[in-house]
Amino acid sequence: MTRRPAGGRARAAAKAWAGRFDAPTARIVEEFTTSLPVDRVLYPHDIAGSRAHVKALVRAKLLTPREGRRLDAGLRRVLAELDSGSFHFRQSDEDIHMAVERRLTELIGPLGGKLHTGRSRNDQVALDLRLWLRAECDTLDAELARVQRALVAVGRRHQAVLLPGYTHLQRAQPVLLAHHLLAYHEMLARDRGRVRDCRVRADEMPLGAGALAGAGFALERRYVAKLLGFARVTRNSLDAVADRDAAAEFLAAAAIAAVHLSRLAEELVLWASEEFGFIQLPDAFATGSSMMPQKKNPDVAELVRGRTGRVLGALVALLTTLKGLPLAYNRDLQEDKALLFDAAATLRQSLAVLAAMLPALRFDTTRMAAAGDGLLLATDLADLLVERGVPFRRAHEVVGGLVRHCLATGTALRDVDAATLRRHSPLLVPELVRGLTPAQSVARRRVVGGTAPAEVRRRLARAAREART
Q: How far apart are CA 390 and CA 396, in angstroms?
């Protein structure tokens, strides 16, 4: 006969599920399985869900109205303690759900044990997670909009500033700086769309699914959904407790947004280098070297770029966790929250620092304009030949030969002599070539979405309106 360890029953009784067990949980297991350090941030959502559940229990006549009032008052007291920081967590609490229920029972007595009627931690945590996702999607949407507004503000201040556009990191054609910044505005607009889409799919109420088969009492799930502001209830109890699609979708949206921020950060790093020299970083958003007195390092942009890996890693980690799980709930799903919370916080921090730094950047417009000289107008010259009846492929060949001459002689296009121009094409005359300027080049790009000044002004105005919604 196995001898029960002294005091084991008392320790096991501290667990809500202890009735099945004869020995206490090992301390190392408690430390390994607890999620409290991570999921305690869910407490506002957990208590909101519990208060709605109490109303449903009263409605189903599983609680008297008086019991419901006492439970609700107790939950509000627990919330006040958590808000004020006076709540005392215990090692045995396991997670935020058990911590709240334990404290509630301490405050109002055995009635606290009725709170969990018709509910499992499986559907409870699914509810908390969806409530968190809805709120976080709204927060992230607002933070993305802040960076959009910063980009628009910088673009409006520099509407006439020219910048060499690049492909393959080689100078390609001149564009307006505002046009370049608006490209990131477009990326963030798609990010906002993905976040909003995620919120729509997260807007399903899983409470009432129980552990996996559904609640054993006639709880009005649509009533609870209405109390909590959900658009609809989940349609399958197994799926409701096992589903983490909304979490994965959130991380996918966050990962793509982080990649966009990383691309912007990479350009800021390049532009701040002496080789480019397009921007001066504000002192408040740069650091120095402990060894080299002359250094001014773009650490903020580098960390935005570097922390992208954490967000990408969270997505891969969650998908890896999900890929081998059978229905329904498995404890592996506990790992979702650490990934979600860290990725969301990391992305929010990156958005906040970029929104603050972008308006403080100082652009060296003279340096940027000088970089637009040279061969960036080769495409425009080919286009001018096309306007004079030359097939584009032939015009491309002619100008390519002229570029080859410029490179060999160290001559700019506009400085090529008349004889050399005629040798490449009788249509090439000095007046045609020397009349080309970067400003004329961008003015030619009048198509919708192009870099022509009028088009960029129109897009800036519309982008400003979009960033306010």
A: 10
CA distances from 2 to 5, 21, 23, 24, 206 (A): 9, 13, 10, 14, 42
Q: What is the DSSP string of 139-201?
A: HHHHHHHHHHHHHHHHHHHTTT-EEEEEETTEEEEEEEHHHHHHHHHHHHHHHHHHHHHHHHH
List the chain domain ranges: 16-117, 122-365, 370-454
The catalytic residues are 168, 289
Q: Which fold has domain 122-365?
A: Fumarase C; Chain A, domain 2 (1.20.200)
Which residue has 């192009």 as its token pair? 450
Q: What pLDDT is recorded for position 145? A: 98
- What was the pLDDT predicted at 5? 38
Please tell me the pTM assigned to this model. Answer: 0.91
- What's the topology of domain 16-117? Fumarase C; Chain B, domain 1 (1.10.275)
- Top CATH class, 370-454: mainly alpha
What confidence category does residue 133 fall into, taking pLDDT thresholds of 50, 70 and 90?
very high
Q: What number is the average pLDDT over the span 29-39?
A: 88
- Evaluate if residue 13 carries a pLDDT over 50: no
Q: What is the pLDDT of residue 14?
A: 59
Backbone torsions φ then ψ of 425, nearest 5 degrees: -165, 135
**Is residue 299 packed enough to be buried (19+ CB in 10 Å), middle (13-18) or exposed (0-12)?**
middle
Task: Name the 3-class secondary structure at 121.
Answer: helix
**CB contact at 8 A, 137 and 195:** yes
